[in-house]
Amino acid sequence: MYITELLSYSLDRLRKEPELLLEERQQVERSMQSSALSHYHAFIDSANCLSVVQQQLGSACEGLGSLSQSVPELAGAFEAFSKDAATVMAQHNANKQLLAQQANLLELLDAPQLMDTCVRNGIYDEALDLHAFIMRVALLHPDLPIVKLLAAQAQAMSQAMLGQLLQRLRTNIQLPECLRVIGYLRRMAAFPEAELRLHFLRCREEWLAQLISELDSSDSYEYVKHLTDVHRLHLFDIVMQYRAIFFDASSQDAKASAGNTLEGCVLYTWVQHRVSHYVAALQQHLPAIEEGTQLASALEHATYCCSSLSRVGLDFSCLLGPLFQLCALRLFGAKLALAVDAFHQRLDSHKWVAMPAPLLGKAAAASGAAEGSEQQQQGGANAAAGDDLAPPYALMEHVPLAVFTNGVLSAMNELRHCALLPLQRPAGTLLQGSLEQVASSLVHYRHTRSLAATEQALFGAASRALSDVMVPYLASCFAAVFPGGSGLLSAAAVTAVLKDAAGPGN
After folding, report:
1. What secondary structure does DSSP assign to 174-186, as a single string?
2. How far apart are CA 31 and CA 334, in angstroms?
3. Which of helix, strand or coil describes residue 505?
């Protein structure tokens, strides 16, 4: 702009311009000097400020140097802070999510306790649903500690429920309850199918054994009756329950392969075990029954039990016959032995004195002596025809024979309640042996005692009454118990023993 103005000046003006510039310069210098004089404080302050700035600038340079050295450390701190902040943010987000899912988490955490409550109150459907839910959560989140803890608690509750269900099988439950319990066990998948059968039968066996152990065994007759009733009722129920529960597999037992032998035979093996225990109990307690009516009643109960169990294919009546036959024969033999002992005692103390007999007794004795052999041959037919089986009055003249006859009749009364056909021959053999033993006792008595003539006559009459009256009469009574069994008693054998007792005057 000054150049443009300078070009517009005239020549004279241009010649004067240096002088003007010099004057202006001098004027500026004078102005500057006056200004410096009037504002010297500012220059001093500026100098001081410059000095301070230089010093502080040096300090700043040193600080910048140290700062530049601390920058890597500061960067590491910032990076750590970033990570911590990210962790805090993640926790914050997790807490926010936890807060948002608080209700669901509380339900999940309460699941084991709720399952325990359901198990304690027998609400097994809900307990199994909760267990399945917890197991699904454990399968989805296998690494979470809280989920592992929940799964462990659920397994503990599941074991407690398993124990309760097995305990239910050890009680008196009916088929619908058995079906529910086995359904729960199958849902739990606690056992394979074959092992489940074993556990079912084992629990029912424990319950049945407990029932049997609670029976009073002091009275053998009552014990046998109650034992039979327990097997008739509960063994039948258990077999029906087993077949109803395991029907699908049981229906294929006949087609099962060798690998499934256990599944097919487990029921029959258990039934055989239970029947063998029952038979062993009968073998132990039947000999203690000392009355024929009680033995017959026990046989009737056992036969009815077999009849009931035969509906499920468990007829074991063939095992009962030998047991009751042996007991009945033992009872009959014991009664005969008592009769023989009573005869011996009465014979030892008997006084051979003639005793008056009623007229009817004389007639009966005469008819008995006349028809002895015929009555022996036709004893069974007479009994079937309804002949009177009252003891002959002729035996009342001979007290030892009357005592023995009463004992034999008592033995037959005990036997007739349980007169099984296979007992006919062994019972006849026992009775024949008792008669021969009585005859032998008479022979021994005759040889060891000194009898007067009158006593010998009475003794001979007693011997004849034994073979001619008592043996035919007892044969008739035996035929009443066992039709056609009179032929098992031989008066000839008794007579052959008695012939040794014949003496003078007989």
Report:
1. -HHHHHHHHHHHH
2. 169
3. coil
Q: Measured between alpha carbons, how far is 118 from 122 in angstroms, rounded to an integer?
A: 6
Contacts of 382 (CB under 8 A, 6+ apart): 375, 476, 479
From the list 244, 245, 243, 231, the residue with the least C-alpha distance to 268 is 243
Contacts of 402 (CB under 8 A, 6+ apart): 391, 395, 396
Q: Which residue has the tokens 């229906």?
A: 251
In whole angstroms, give the CA distance from residue 346 to residue 342.
6
Distances (CA, A) of 212 to 36, 217, 277, 314, 454: 134, 10, 11, 19, 65
* Cβ 224 vs Cβ 301: under 8 Å: yes
What one-character DSSP code corresponds to residue 385? T
State how far the Cα of 102 lies from the Cα of 369, in Å rounded to an integer. 112
Per-residue HEC secondary structure of 301-358 comes to HHHHHHHHHHHHCCCCHHHHHHHHHHHHHHHHHHHHHHHHHHHHHHHHCCCCCCCCCC
Side chain identity at residue 3, one-letter code? I
pLDDT (tens digit per residue) in 365-406: 434 433 434 434 444 333 333 446 788 888 888 889 899 999
DSSP structure string for 470-502 = IHHHHHHHHHHHSTT-GGGS-HHHHHHHHGGG-
- Calculate the alpha carbon distances from 47 to 35, 52, 60, 361 in Å: 17, 9, 19, 178
CA distances from 480 to 7, 406, 477 (A): 182, 16, 5
How crowded is the C-beta side of 15, counted as CA atoms within 13 Å? 2
Q: What CA–CA distance (Å, rounded) separates 264 from 5? A: 133
Give tens-digit pLDDT for 202-252. 999 999 999 999 998 888 899 999 999 999 999 999 999 998 888 754 444
C-alpha distances (whole Å) from 444 to each of 344, 404, 439 are: 11, 17, 9
Show the tokens assigned to 459: 């003794």
**Model's pTM, two decimal places?**
0.67
Q: Return d(Cα 296, Cα 311) in angstroms, integer.
A: 23
Could you tell me which of 347, 324, 463 has the C-alpha nearest to residue 400?
A: 347
